[in-house]
Amino acid sequence: MSIFNVGLKKIVDDSYDIEIGFGLESKLISDIQNGLVGKIKKFAVITDSIVKPLYADNILCMLKNAGYNADIFVFDAGETSKTRTTKELLEDAMLEKGYRRDCCIIAVGGGVVTDLAGFLAGTYGRGVPFINYATTLLAAADASIGGKTAVDTPLATNLIGIFNQPEKVYIDIAAWKTLPPKQIYSGLAETIKHACIASGELFNYLDNHMNEILNIDKNACEYIANENCRIKYEVVMKDERESGLREILNLGHTVGRAIETVSDYKLLHGEAVAIGLVAEVKLAHKLGYVTSEQHDDVIALLNKACLPTQIPDYIDREALVKKLYTDKKVRDGQLRFVIQKGIGDVVEFEDGVFAVKISEDTAREIIMNM
Amino acid sequence: MSIFNVGLKKIVDDSYDIEIGFGLESKLISDIQNGLVGKIKKFAVITDSIVKPLYADNILCMLKNAGYNADIFVFDAGETSKTRTTKELLEDAMLEKGYRRDCCIIAVGGGVVTDLAGFLAGTYGRGVPFINYATTLLAAADASIGGKTAVDTPLATNLIGIFNQPEKVYIDIAAWKTLPPKQIYSGLAETIKHACIASGELFNYLDNHMNEILNIDKNACEYIANENCRIKYEVVMKDERESGLREILNLGHTVGRAIETVSDYKLLHGEAVAIGLVAEVKLAHKLGYVTSEQHDDVIALLNKACLPTQIPDYIDREALVKKLYTDKKVRDGQLRFVIQKGIGDVVEFEDGVFAVKISEDTAREIIMNM
Q: How far apart are the two ends of chain A, measured CA to CA in Å?
């Protein structure tokens, strides 16, 4: 009998930049020319059917004009495409076109595209570099920091994936102008979540500037894009592997993700999160961490952002309660929730513990009354 | 316009132990009881249909007797199961049984099981810990060090996967006694590869003790298991992300993997590698790095290990040449090969470069004459 120790301690630097601005296509190309991804000359642009004609075709064309090999790989827009099957089809298409390990993936689109393409990049040839060119507010709020990539399965959302950091993220606010209003509302749900967990100031800003934001005013949008990045960055920086603090980013998501699945993705992610935020602020109120006024303020701000604040009638409440148990945060079969403390803070239950076990009855009571 | 830097520099320790011995089931259980994977109480045993009754059922039973929650997840034995579809079916079965992020995966079996389960573990809930209980010589030689996990696709082998390090590896030599002889031969191909690239001494040992090894003599097998680990460890340690040196482990694999695919997996991995080693020693001989005698010695040792040394007649040579281009090592559309230097060494073409571009004509000439 013998024992070998395989020593693999090392320093890893996954740092990257997020650039926020209006119309960043040329900057993307010049960054690549200036060595953003080393000597790579082959680029797979991954996008969805909506974003393709709006932005991705243009980026593809600019890459080719700059002398790079590039192809575009497209899937049907929508959360229902965020599956292992779509990933497989894209992989096969890339293999067919001769893509190997000497390529870089550029994800152009919203959160579904960046989640899917980031996961694909991480497993393609055991990992090729990728760049996120985020065209939606939701991607700016949610998908640009943290390295979380994943796909959905019939039984749970975002459960199959990896942590994978991009080479760079571009947040193109100009692209928000072409978003359907519902997508803007949906992205605002994550922004409101960030305000609830970390910044009363951002909460007030949203309350006072909602119309400008909904009209894609440049300054207002740049401000919220910045704030989204700053808040998420501070949380993720302190806890990259999601052991404790990072759980606070799941505010609204325990119920939200379950609703999203039970609605069969009729609800957009942000819409589901908005309803989840309401459910979880009700829970915080019940536990005494949020006043009635603060509870009402959260619901009012969500309404101002044209987001739903009640569980739609077509949702089976019991199915929803059952679905809560598929959440990644479930431990030892117990439901666990992040709890908002007033507006702009969360409850730390013990050192480094930001979620608390909640009985099924308590969860059911709140869901049944929404 | 603004730029955020997301700073993610950190120290990562992926170190783990490899234990080599006879009948290590009890050791596995006691290691878990002693905190090998922290406080985890839920174990998914992943295995194939052949290994299940031989070893995995027993390990499952021992886990349950020790008070853990455990289930077994089985797929059909064979390289053709190493697919994205099998991974998906296993994931769905685990989700169905309520497995979330608070579990550990134990892979019990050969290289196909450890490759597939290691990949699955890395993407399940964005990564859960896994343990490899290797029951084959091939797994000992190939899959226990390096963290390479992957599945095959119709267009290429091992191209979809990740680097993922286990918590511990057990190499149970007692299990080799139940292997079909062909599996022992197949595993020896990787051992012979290790000898060719790094140890003339191991090469001579294999030459002098082949009968003991084929009869699973305890001492001889422990020696080669150790040597396999040592050689692979030294190479991998120096180059964990496969940038340069690690390429030498691909000796025989550029042609081998292509043959494996073109044969539609009628050839076992090791059989295909054996033929690949012959092709690549012929190439080394042609380039003047291997003498005629050394060339003959390699072929003789492969024969002694009952491995094939010629391309089977049913293989379409032109399809094989074409398939070489799907190799992960192809760069800028050019074939690249590791070149053996005598026995026990490889050619370093320039600083840190252990592969050389080979023209399609040269590759074709060798393949046509085998």
A: 62
